[in-house]
Each structure stands twice: as structure tokens, then as C-alpha cells.
């Protein structure tokens, strides 16, 4: 979840977590590095504020038509703090021009600071330089429903054909465990990764990137869910401040050159968000650019490592638990996701498959910056605090294409945790 100065997102998510377990809305299971690598140093993980990057390609064709979709679920972030309206003001301040087109769908809040948006009905807007033009009033709609998202994508595809598209999902996030999006008017559930994947597929667009201006969404599993419908993911491993991304700078850059490559644009977004000059004590800003074509290889190589761990669960259970416990976790450890590179680096160098997994992860993490130590850009689901959620999450991951063999270790680990045998 996005947060205020302290832990608001964690408190809200705790409540949502139990609500989602009890009821489903739809009755379904829901740092600097050597070129070519992402490891920040020889130490475990990375140091706060370091950049991790690969070589970036030049810009593409200047003057390409580019449509940016912003799916903005206002929620309590808007009704209590006006955060969505503030970000819209940042967007308008960029004074973008064609061939960059920005479409915004708003909803999911009980009230809006921006009088043009007004009540809690869903609305679609076109950004025209420094003004919002309303295109459509959608009436009552559940913004945390995948169908609502897919309808927005379909609308953009049919009404505003472009050479390039990108999508930003704005709101609360809860990682692999619970997914994305809390509509304040329909508070029971969030959108699980499987439903997000289906929504993107149904929308029928291929995105240069899908970005999450939301907490905790930079996970391997999220990347896997996006991989068939986008080239890159931009997301945070940790909670985000309520203010979220900084929109004016990167939108001005993109408006100036719509041929800007997704990697260069992603780097600009990451740098603006993690600018230490504006950080305070409570800011844990992390953001990473992930190459989605490399994600399947990461999953496969991680499966190899976990297979070796599965063979040692009965004899090395305590050591396995300590390994995971020492690895950097996020959201105060409540969301069962740990940093992938930090996890890898804690294996002995001679561990079978360690080098291959590290290389695969470094290929996927194109660029990452963090104000948090040992946050290297990409986390993964490692169940250890909520065993009652494991079966649900495992089944959901199978829906997005994870092989059943991937879960051999976790099945044994969970069984040992629960039974003590």
C-alpha cells in the first residue's frame, strides 16, 4: 500500500487481508554495477541509494504516437489526503503535447479533492496540455475488478490507436499475497495477480511498460503475470509514500521525445522517485525497472535452487528458516516477500545453481535504486508467516503459469512448519 509518514498502508492492509480471506467479491481464488549486471557490490544485497543498471539503448523514432494509460483508484489516498488529485496536478504541470496522449480513468474513492472529478463515479479523461477533458462518466463501477481495467484498456485501443502504449496502475498494492487495487466503495477485496493477468490479456494491448505507483508490487510473481502483455515492469519492493511517483519530469521528457526508449524512460521514472534530496526519515523509496522477457528464466533457475532446498528440508529446516529470516523482507515482513538477490547472495558460492540464478536475476533487473539497504529491485514470494494463505497463493500462481514442480520445496517446508515433522 502507499503510506503516509508512518505505516498507514500496513494497518489498512492487515484489515483487508482478513476481509479477503473471509470473502471474495467474485467467489474465485483470488544501485552502480558492471555493464550487463545488477549486483551493487560484493556484499550481500545493495547499499541504500546505490544504483544498479545495465547498458541502455538509444531512443527510438522521434514523433511516434504514444498513449499513456493511467488507471487511478483513488481510495482513502484521495478521500483523506487528495493524493490522486495532487498527482493529476503534477501531470497537468508537464503541459504535454501530441503525439503524447494521456488517458486517465478515475474512481474508487468516496470523494475527490479535484472538483472536476467530483463524486465517486468512474470517469475517463483526456489530458490536453494542462487541462482535463472528460470523455465519459461510467457511473458506479468497481475499480478493483479486472473487468473494469480491461474495459479501460479496450477503450484506449479502440478509440486512440497508437504506435506505443504504457500503463500505470495507481493505488494500493499488497504484492503477491493479495495483489493490487483497493476501491474504497467496494472494500472487500483487491485484484489478485491472476485476475490482473486476465485483464491485460482481455484488453488486447502490448505495453512498453506496466508501472505500479503502488506499494510492494516489484515481485517475481507480478512480473510473471505481466510478461505476456508488456516488455517492462516498473515497481517498488517496499511501501511507497502517499505522494507516490513524481510525474512532471518524466512526462515532459516523454512529450519532448515520444521515441524515448522504455528503458531510458524507466530510468528517469526511477531516478525521480528515489531522489534523496527530497527524502525524509520515513521514506523507504525503492523502484526498479524489470525486463519481463527475462522473467521465465529467473523462475526456472529459482526452481532449480529450491529443488535442492527441498531435499534438505527434513535435515536442515532450522538453517533454511534462518536463511530466509536473514534475507531482506518488505512491508515489515507481513507480506511474505523477500529480496531475490539478497537471498541468492546468502548461499555459499559453491551452491549448485547459485551462479545461474544470480545471472538470470541480473539480466531481469535492468535498473534499480533504493533508499533501503539490501533492496536490490525484485522480491519473490516466500511463505513463512501466513501458512493459512499458502494454498490459495500457490493455486493463483499456477493460474499465471507457474509449474507445479516449482512448489515442491514450499509444500515440504509448509508441511514441516505446520506439523513439526
Key traits:
421 residues, alpha/beta, Rossmann fold, 10-stranded mixed beta sheet, two-stranded parallel sheet, 15 helices
Q: What strand order characterises the main sheet?
A: 2-13-11-9-8-7-3-4-5-6
Q: How many helix segments?
A: 15
Uncertain residue ranges: 3-12, 17-51, 54-58
Largest sheet: 10 strands, mixed
Helix content: 25-40%
Report the radius of gyration as a whole number of Å: 20 Å
CATH topology of the domain at 66-291: Rossmann fold
Q: How much beta, percentage-wise?
A: 15-25%
Which architecture of the domain at 66-291 does the CATH hierarchy give at level 2?
Answer: 3-Layer(aba) Sandwich
User: Helix and strand string, N-terminal first?
Assistant: EHEEHHEEEHEHHEHEEHHEHHEHHEEHH
Taken from the alpha-carbon principal axes, the silhouette is: globular
Mean pLDDT, to the nearest integer, reads 87
Quick one: CATH class of the domain at 66-291?
A: Alpha Beta
Number of strands: 14
Structural class: alpha/beta
The N- and C-terminal alpha carbons lie at a distance of 36 Å
Structure description:
- The protein is α/β, with parallel strands linked by helices.
- It has a domain at 66-291: Rossmann fold (3-Layer(aba) Sandwich).
- It is 38% helix and 18% strand.
- The strands form three sheets. Strands 2-13-11-9-8-7-3-4-5-6 form a ten-stranded mixed β-sheet, with helices on both faces. Strands 1-10 form a two-stranded parallel sheet.
- β5 and β6 (131-139) form a beta hairpin.
- It is globular.
Amino acid at each position: 500500500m502507499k503510506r503516509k509518514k508512518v505505516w498507514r498502508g500496513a494497518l489498512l492492509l492487515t484489515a483487508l487481508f482478513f476481509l479477503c480471506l473471509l470473502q471474495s467479491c467474485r467467489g474465485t481464488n483470488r544501485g552502480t554495477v558492471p555493464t550487463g549486471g545488477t549486483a551493487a557490490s560484493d556484499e550481500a544485497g545493495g547499499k541504500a541509494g546505490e544504483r544498479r543498471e545495465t547498458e541502455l539503448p538509444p531512443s527510438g523514432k522521434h514523433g511516434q504516437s504514444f498513449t499513456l494509460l493511467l488507471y487511478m483508484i483513488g481510495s482513502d489516498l484521495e478521500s483523506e489526503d487528495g493524493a490522486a488529485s495532487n498527482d493529476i496536478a503534477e501531470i497537468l504541470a508537464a503541459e504535454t503535447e501530441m503525439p503524447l496522449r494521456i488517458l486517465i480513468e478515475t474512481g474508487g474513492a468516496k470523494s475527490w479533492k479535484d472538483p472536476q472529478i467530483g463524486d465517486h463515479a468512474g470517469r475517463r479523461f483526456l489530458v490536453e496540455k494542462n487541462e482535463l477533458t472528460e470523455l465519459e462518466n461510467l457511473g458506479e463501477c468497481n475499480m478493483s475488478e479486472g473487468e473494469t481495467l480491461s474495459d479501460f484498456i479496450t477503450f484506449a485501443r479502440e478509440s486512440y490507436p497508437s504506435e506505443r502504449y504504457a500503463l500505470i496502475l495507481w493505488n494500493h498494492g499488497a504484492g503477491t499475497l493479495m495483489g493490487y487495487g483497493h476501491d474504497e466503495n467496494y472494500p472487500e477485496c483487491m485484484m489478485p495477480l491472476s485476475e490482473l493477468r486476465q485483464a491485460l490479456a482481455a484488453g488486447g494491448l502490448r505495453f512498453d511498460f506496466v508501472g505500479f505507483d503502488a506499494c510492494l508490487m516489484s515481485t517475481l510473481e507480478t512480473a510473471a503475470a505481466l510478461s505476456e502483455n508488456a516488455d517492462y515492469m516498473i515497481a517498488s519492493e517496499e511501501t511507497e509514500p502517499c505522494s507516490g511517483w513524481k510525474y512532471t519530469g518524466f512526462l515532459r521528457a516523454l512529450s519532448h521525445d515520444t521515441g524515448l526508449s522504455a528503458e531510458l524512460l524507466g530510468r528517469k521514472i526511477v531516478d525521480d522517485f528515489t531522489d534523496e534530496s527530497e527524502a525524509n526519515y520515513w521514506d523507504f523509496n525503492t523502484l526498479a525497472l524489470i525486463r519481463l522477457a527475462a522473467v521465465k528464466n529467473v523462475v526456472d533457475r529459482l526452481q532449480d535452487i529450491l529443488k535442492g532446498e527441498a531435499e534438505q528440508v527434513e535435515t536442515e529446516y532450522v538453517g533454511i528458516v534462518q536463511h530466509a529470516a536473514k534475507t531482506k523482507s518488505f512491508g515489515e515482513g507481513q507480506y511474505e516477500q523477500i529480496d531475490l538477490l539478497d537471498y541468492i547472495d546468502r548461499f555459499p558460492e559453491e551452491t549448485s545453481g547459485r551462479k545461474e540464478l544470480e545471472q538470470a536475476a541480473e539480466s531481469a533487473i535492468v535498473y534499480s535504486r533504493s533508499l533501503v539497504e539490501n533492496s536490490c529491485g525484485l522480491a519473490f514470494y516466500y511463505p513463512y508467516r501466513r501458512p493459512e494463505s499458502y494454498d490459495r497463493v500457490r493455486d493463483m500462481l499456477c493460474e499465471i503459469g507457474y509449474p507445479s514442480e516449482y512448489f515442491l520445496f514450499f509444500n515440504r517446508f509448509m508441511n514441516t512448519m505446520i506439523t513439526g515433522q
